[in-house]
Each structure stands twice: as C-alpha cells, then as structure tokens.
Amino acid sequence: MKIRALIMAVLLMMSFTACSFVKAGEVNPSQNNSQEEEEGDRSLEELKAQYPEYFELSSFKGIEFYIWEMSEDSFRCGMMSGTNRSKTDEEIWDLANRSLSITEAKKILEYQDIKYQDVIVMPVIQPVSSYQYEINDEYWAKLKKVFDDNGMNVNIIVK
C-alpha cells in the first residue's frame, strides 16, 4: 500500500514538473497562440531572430521535417539536418520548444533555396500535445493533402 502511494506521489510530481519546464523567453508549446495562427505567421526576420538554428540547416543529407498535430488540423513542425543516424526521442521532443507552423517552415526552406525533394517528412506524436491521433494510412493521406495544399511536394516517410 505504501509503495502504491509513493508511486502515485512520484507520478503526480513528475506531471507537475513536466508541465512547468519552459525556459525563460520560450513559449510553452502546449499553449496554442491563436493570435499567431490567425495573423498568419511570423516574418522571416522574426524567425531569424528567434530560431537562428533553422537558418543553419544543411541539405547535404536532406532535411528531416518532423510534424505533429496539436489539435484537429493544427500542425506544428521542426526541422533538423539529415544524418546517417536515427534521432533520439529527446532530440525530436526538443523540437516542440522551437516549433514552427508549416507556412513558417516553408518560408525558411525557400529562403535557403532548399528543394522540396530534399525534405523528408516524418510524422511524430509529441508528448506536449494532448491531441490523440494515430499515424496510419489515413493519417499519411491527410498529411499529403496538407503539404499539397501548401504547395510543398515533399517526401513523406511511411514507417
């Protein structure tokens, strides 16, 4: 009985700390910024100032484009330079701290003159999203339509 109470206390404490760890100056990715979405997205200059790492991406081995859904049809994404290794869950989850809209990612890719055939889309489920979805054939088709609607003919990885 004491062990069960201890486990429950630890889990409760972990859930509180997981919800509160956001560095100063960062936006909590679990909070939707509806004003940002309604106004259309940040300018290229704002993106350069806030996310300089996205302007240093190398497409030599492709661009890994991780995408997740925060709510129905509300997508966020992050990008990394391609490598010959699989990214860790922690690396992928960290993208939520510097997430972009698809439109913002498109601006960055176009600014850097990165070809869409060099972009590999990998859908993921981020722990910061409480929205439930399954990555299956239906979801692949949904993502394909989202990218087509945004004028991005990208490669979507099916695992």
Give keywords.
6 helices, 38% helix, 15% strand, globular
Helix content: 25-40%
The number of domains? 1
Q: What is the strand arrangement across the widest sheet?
A: 2-1-3-4
The tally of strands reads 4
Task: Give structural notes.
A hairpin with a 2-residue loop joins strand 1 (63-71) and strand 2 (74-81). The protein is an alpha/beta fold and 159 residues long. The protein has a 4-stranded mixed beta sheet, covered by helices on one side. It contains 6 helices and 4 strands, in the order H-H-H-E-E-H-H-E-H-E.
In brief:
This protein is α/β, with parallel strands linked by helices. The chain has six helices and four strands, in the order αααββααβαβ. It has helices spanning 2-20, 34-39, 44-50, 89-94, 102-111, 137-149; strands at residues 63-71, 74-81, 119-123, 155-156.
Topology:
Elements: H1 2-20, H2 34-39, H3 44-50, E1 63-71, E2 74-81, H4 89-94, H5 102-111, E3 119-123, H6 137-149, E4 155-156
Parallel strand pairs: 1-3, 3-4
Antiparallel strand pairs: 1-2
